[in-house]
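Cont'd.
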Amino acid sequence: MSSRIELTGVRQVFNVKNASGRREQFVALDGLDLIVEAGELFVLVGPSGCGKSTVLDLISGLTRPASGTVRVEGREVKGPGLDRGFVFQHYTLLPWRTARGNVEFALEAAGLSRADRRSRAAHYLDLVGLADFADRYPQELSGGMKQRVAIARSLSYQPEVLLMDEPYGALDAQTRERLQEELLTIWRRTGTTIVFITHDIDEAVYLGQRVAVMSSRPGRVQTVIDVDLDRKSPQHDIRSSGQFATYRHHIWSLLRSPDPRSPELRPAAEEADRVA
Amino acid sequence: MPDLLTETTAARPHARQEEAAGIKASPHARARALTLTRGLVGLALLAVVWELAPRTGLINPYFVPPLSQVLAAWGQMVVDGEMLKHVDASLLRSSIGFGLAIAVGVPLGGAIAWYRPVRELLTPVLEIFRNTAALALLPVFVLILGIGETSKIAIVAYACFFPVLLNTISGVSTADPQLLRAARVLGLSPVTTFRKVVFPAALPTIFTGIRLAGAAAVLVLIAAEMIGATAGLGYFINYAQNNFLIPQMYAAILTTALLGLIVNYGLVALERRMSRWRA
């Protein structure tokens, strides 16, 4: 139920139009190496525009790298596949289908029979706490509920890897915390490898077993940090512990300080509003 | 980790979300009754003016007979089968033309929007045809297809075709790219993606085109029938005017209005049924 992901020497280049309208090459990733162990909850954190989403697109097979290799469980990624699930920031639910219909949509792609789709959808909607909302249309659901449906949809076909691209970015703080807790539970239950992207340092520390800090222009992994928090007692507010603050500050400093390897010595915060 | 597990299963949306999720904008029955009443009053006023203006000599009753006379003529035409004959002829032509336009316009529009080479090939051609008024082509149609049914069906199909086609193109090409990404991640083939994602997404826009086409179908047909036909509402309106059957003429005109209304409301109702998810 889980796979190891391996990116070696990955370079990704886009053609973009510059200010004067001429085409030029934009190097999104260069010399990126990354290993995500099977069953791990791995977080990529970095400023907007550092190429985090590009990494996820490559793992999902939506795009191919300009050079370097992307492997999932030893096999090179040649295109999208149902061994990898994707949760987008903007839910991407079909508005004309109910919550159940949206989960079943993925299961139709997976080729399940009607009866199997029905029971599988019910199971996963229950897993995300939406059993009573199966017949609601997306428009009748709150942002948090929509994202739960999207998560249920991506888990329903039981991928070995779950890729999450700032899935909670559009949610309010409380809903976000709630969904973070739920994600940890689901992860422990299913054992799926999860690659989670965020620009929120707290989210990264809270969720990640390991957190990769990315630097931008060109995007590469600056440091990988092992987060070893005491998560044994659920009642304990882990976010206000000293340990948590230490990790938080460490990542914060890394994002602030320029990457010694980066040719341009500009602070990450300046990049905050750029889009790759 | 039993604690966390129980918590997750209990992590249902709370009451406010549930409440908010249940909200559906439906006006109160009283407000709706009021709207209906006002509308009826407006119609009644029109009827009263139509009845009294000729009777009081405000307008010449020979050219505009009072509503009661028109309705009497209408009743007579319904009873002796005259009305049915013309409505039947008109309805048949417009529905065949309308159906043809949809049968060709939707798939072609889908192909144009979905396949870039097809779009590039056909866009200039379509631009030229689109900007040619349908009725301007009626003589051409008559010349080629004769004075019979075919030319009238063809002109209706032509007039209906462009609203359907253009709206299909716009609906398909504006399908949410985020949804397309989601479909790609699931490894859906282009055909399946079109069927399950793009087409349903485009349906509301396509329906706008179909409704425009429905209105065009009635309008263009009436005009075409006035020029050359031996039956149909357009033909009869012209015929009645030439033979000074003035109340009958108005009866036929009223019928065309009614027909247009029925077509439009029928399509609106169908559209609503098919897009209930928009709440």
